[in-house]
Structures are given as structure tokens and as C-alpha cells.
Amino acid sequence: MKFIETGIVKPFEHYAVSRPEVIDRIVTGLSNNEFLLLYSHKRTGKSSMIPVIIQDLAQRDNSFRGIHVCFQQMNFCSSQSFWSSLSNLITLSSEEIHHFGSIASFQKAFRQSSATGFQYALIIDEMDKLLHHRQICDEFLGVLRAMQQTSSIAGLWEPKIL
């Protein structure tokens, strides 16, 4: 194990304080299709918990897939560039979801992947970056809301503060 001072702490490689009770609450909530918001001060380990959450989620239920997307890396110049960069990040995180470039193809990609029997937990890091782009934010959250109502995705949406 080694110490890290900047960037994401990889709990499997770096020294990190384990937070099993918080991780267990998150994994249990996602397994029950709850929508969660993890809110805390900077540098408290929120992003570093994501790999552990994804691993624990898969171990608990083999049909669950965690998809990690960090909005720090997103292109918010236009709606088209947003959906394209989102596609690139999601396909890096999931082998079952193929490239998409629009709202319709995003929804279709998740519907087709759900047909394989998998459930997805979309875990979004740096969500506040989206909030500075009103039109894209409304568009993206509207799509997630519609998908949630058809039960094709679970993730971080309606706040349940832990």
C-alpha cells in the first residue's frame, strides 16, 4: 500500500480508511433500485468509494452492473457534444452498452442492454458540473426520469442523503 495526496484514491492499491457501513448502505440502496445522492465536503473520499461500490454491487447480485461516469471530463459545448462524450465514458465503463450519440440512441442502448438481463446503476461523479449548463441538464435529467419510470436504469437521482 502507498499513500496518495492528489487524485482518486484507489482503495485496492492505496492506503484508505475503509467506510464499510456507508458503502453497504449505498450498495443496498442501489440493489433496491433506490436513487441516492452522496453529498459531502471535498476530499472526503466520495469518488474513491465508487470502485468499491461497483465491486460490491456485482458481488451481491451478478445481474447488476455499475457504470461510473465523471462529469469533470464531459464536453458541455453543445447537446451533441455532451451525448457523444457521455457515450465515450459509458462505453469505457460497460462492455454491454454500445456507442450512442443522441437521446434516442442513449435510451435504446440501455433498453437493448437491459434485454440481456442486466440491471444498471449509473453512478455520476462531479454532477455539479452539469448544473452549470441548464439546457443540457434539463435534457439529461428528463431522459433519466423517463427511463426510471420505465425501470430501465437505477442510479443517483432523487436525493436520499447518506
Layout of strands and helices, then pairs:
Layout: H1 20-31, H2 46-60, E1 64-70, H3 79-93, H4 103-114, E2 119-125, H5 134-149, E3 154-155
Parallel strand pairs: 1-2, 2-3
Task: Tell me about this structure.
It is a single chain. The protein is mainly α and 162 residues long. It has one domain: P-loop containing nucleotide triphosphate hydrolases (Rossmann fold, 3-Layer(aba) Sandwich). The chain is built from 5 helices and 3 strands, in the order H-H-E-H-H-E-H-E. The chain has a 3-stranded parallel sheet, sandwiched between helices.
DSSP summary, beta strand count: 3
Query: How many helices does DSSP assign?
Result: 5
Strand order of the largest sheet: 1-2-3
Q: What is the fold named in CATH at topology level?
A: Rossmann fold
As residue ranges, the low-confidence spans are 154-162
Largest sheet: 3 strands, parallel
- Bin the helical content: 40-55%
**SSE-based structural type:** mainly alpha
Summed over residues and divided by their number, the pLDDT gives a mean of 77
CATH homologous superfamily designation:
P-loop containing nucleotide triphosphate hydrolases
Radius of gyration: 16 Å
Shape: globular
Tally the structural domains: 1
Question: Short summary of the structure?
Answer:
The protein is mainly α and 162 residues long. The chain is built from 5 helices and 3 strands.
